[in-house]
Amino acid sequence: MSILRLADIDLTGKRVLIREDLNVPIKDGRITAEQRILAALPTLRLALEKGAAVMVTSHLGRPVEGEWSEADSLAPVAARLAEHLGRPVPLIRDWVDGGFSVAPGEIVLLENCRMNRGEGKDDEALSKKYAALCDIYCMDAFGTAHRAQASTHGAIRFAKVACGGPLLMAELDALAKALEHPARPLLAIVAGSKVSTKLELLGSLVGKVDQLIVGGGIANTFLAAQGLPVGKSLCETELLDTARQIMADAKARGAQIPLPVDVVVAPTFAADAPASIKDVDRVGPEDMILDIGPATAKQYADIIAKAGSVIWNGPVGVFEFDAFGEGTRAVAEAIRDSQAFSIAGGGDTLAAVDKYGVESGISYISTGGGAFLEFCEGKELPAVAALRARASA
């Protein structure tokens, strides 16, 4: 059942409560990165232009429920929203029981919802209070869609009308395009420090993709599973059989998991450590693998160039250190230059996108790390499930 969309509803004169993800980094009272604010603006402008009385809430940080905290207040966010929207955005501190006014064409920001007692446990009474504030409840925070909380799940159940906002729906549309109806070949690039943290993701993707590139510490574990030396590199020896099984599953359905043929190694994990390129069978006992080598980077770039769809989660090397970032740069630029539909997600991935300036060449950049991973793992997100249930009721 398809989800009701905010864009398809007559909002004229309606009180609309929108759950956004405005959890931006703040230092000394100043916002240091505002990507999440910028991502939410189209939804807020749409609601205002359609004549709604707009109420917005979000989480920020990890406050103690039931206690107001200046450090976790959305006050800096309210000020920044006002600048972007060119209109006042009052911050309402005590809002759960109502008692505040907002007229059609106006917008207010409701203080950090995680300060409300019962938010984290999806409290039914609190959820009903959220729902009572509005005519329409709009879930637009994809980054928290995997959490069953009062503002991301409970309120959807009890609102008069519940819908998905443009940002949430764009995420779902992009993920569906990449995973459910992909242009082939479908390539997934999954990298990270440990197989254990991406085990469900790898297990799910290996049954869907045509090629699976693994990177970082995950690749080291796969190399060791093939009997290749990895020296002092990060490697989960207890998961060698798991890596072998994933490779066997891929082979059984005709999918490929190309492993590195050369790597960049160093004696220590440091930005100024001397780097050298070695074939994978030449890694010494004192070496640490910190990046893929140029031959591997070219091999991966060729695979990316031929892909119809690319899902990217994780840098293939320690890209924070420039000496060990060339592999990730090559992958990022290959995705940028590819004609494939591409989607990138995860905090480190987005940092690499920013570092190498490839954003314009990626079809969709996901705003939700945990939600992105859980969707790719094949899990149904609680917020999405609740919206689908309301649409079918």
List keywords for this structure.
single chain, 393 residues, alpha/beta, 6-stranded parallel β-sheet, 5-stranded parallel β-sheet, 13 helices, 36% helix, 16% strand
Based on CA atoms alone, the radius of gyration comes out at 23 Å
Instruction: Report the portion of residues in β strands.
Output: 15-25%
Total strand count, please? 16
Shape: elongated
Characterise the protein shown here.
The protein contains 13 helices and 16 strands. The chain has helices at 35-49, 75-85, 124-132, 150-158, 166-179, 199-205, 216-225, 240-252, 294-306, 326-337, 347-356, 369-376, 382-392, and strands at residues 15-19, 26-27, 30-31, 53-57, 91-92, 107-110, 136-139, 162-164, 186-192, 211-215, 262-266, 276-279, 288-292, 309-313, 341-344, 364-365.
SSE topology:
Elements lengths: L14 E5 L6 E2 L2 E2 L3 H15 L3 E5 L17 H11 L5 E2 L14 E4 L13 H9 L3 E4 L10 H9 L3 E3 L1 H14 L6 E7 L6 H7 L5 E5 H10 L14 H13 L9 E5 L9 E4 L8 E5 L1 H13 L2 E5 L12 H12 L3 E4 L2 H10 L7 E2 L3 H8 L5 H11 L1
Parallel strand pairs: 1-4, 1-7, 4-6, 5-6, 7-8, 9-10, 9-14, 14-15, 15-16
Antiparallel strand pairs: 2-3, 11-12, 11-13
